[in-house]
Design brief:
The protein is an alpha+beta fold and about 190 residues long. It contains two helices and eleven strands, in the order αβββββββββββα. Strands 1, 2, 4, 5, 6, 8, 10 and 11 form an eight-stranded antiparallel sheet that branches. A three-stranded antiparallel sheet has the order 3-9-7, with no helix packed on it.
Length: about 190
């Protein structure tokens, strides 16, 4: 067994104490500021981005930190070339390509400062930056390629500043939940 001379052990102990002291001296004693909570998402959507009630292929999975794994939106099944509509009134803040995919972003009217922003991709835009849009207005068509889904889909996102939120929260319950139709008896009419 090899033993270090006492001088080496003393030097190692001295260096570890000095490193710890230097770390403490440079550490900022004040805790980092807590970021403000994003505002509640108002249920202002008047339509789904694609179809009437498209299948949700992948739900929103918020990341633990800004750069952590997660899914920063919702993937909706959609056929290539299908119309993509804005879910609420607003102004187009971006219509172009990002990393080879068509992207349209819409700042939603009446949602505060900074406004909530919806994103849709991969979409071949039929609108331009700065254009005002109304709920349900066609903003583009689903591109046949560029999706991260196994089938063709539209990735629908929602942001408040740089914080990602669940875009499904924009949908009022009547649009979000598809309940089966139910026939009720008419009063005063005998059953057959």
């Amino acid at each position: 067994m090899h033993l270090y001379p006492k001088r080496c052990l003393g030097l190692l102990l001295f260096l570890s104490v000095m490193t710890a002291a230097a770390t403490l001296a440079w550490a900022d004693p004040t805790p980092p500021p807590v970021p403000p909570l994003p505002p509640p998402v108002p249920a202002i959507a008047r339509t789904w981005p694609v179809g009437v009630h498209p299948p949700v292929l992948r739900t929103w999975e918020p990341p633990a930190t800004a750069y952590a794994r997660g899914h920063r939106g919702v993937d909706l099944a959609a056929a290539p070339g299908a119309a993509v509509r804005t879910v609420a009134a607003g102004r187009v803040s971006y219509a172009g390509r990002v990393a080879g995919r068509g992207v349209v972003a819409v700042e939603l009217s009446g949602t505060g400062e900074p406004p909530l922003r919806t994103t849709y991709e991969p979409v071949r835009a039929s609108v331009e930056k700065g254009q005002r849009v109304t709920p349900g207005e066609v903003i583009g068509a689903v591109e046949p390629t560029g999706s991260h889904c196994t089938a063709t889909c539209v990735h629908w996102g929602l942001l408040h500043a740089d914080a990602y939120l669940n875009p499904l929260a924009l949908l009022p319950p009547v649009l979000l939940h598809r309940a089966p139709s139910r026939l009720l008896p008419v009063l005063g009419v005998p059953l057959p």
